[in-house]
Design goal:
This protein is an alpha+beta fold. It has a domain at 18-42. Helices cover 38% and strands 21% of the residues.
Length: 42
C-alpha cells in the first residue's frame, strides 16, 4: 500500500498481518510522528 499526501512524505507500507518492530518504528518516523503519538491514535 502506498500512502500519498501533498504536504507529507510518501509512505510505502507492506501488506502483511504483522510488521517487524524495527520496520514499524521506521515507518512511524518517516510519517513524522512519534511512537507515543502513533499509539495514542491507533
Amino acid at each position: 500500500m502506498i500512502l500519498w499526501h501533498d504536504s507529507k512524505p510518501t509512505l510505502s507500507l507492506p501488506n502483511h498481518r504483522e510488521l517487524a518492530p524495527g520496520l514499524l518504528r521506521s515507518l512511524i518516523r518517516q510519517a513524522g510522528i512519534t511512537v507515543d503519538e502513533f499509539l495514542e491514535n491507533r
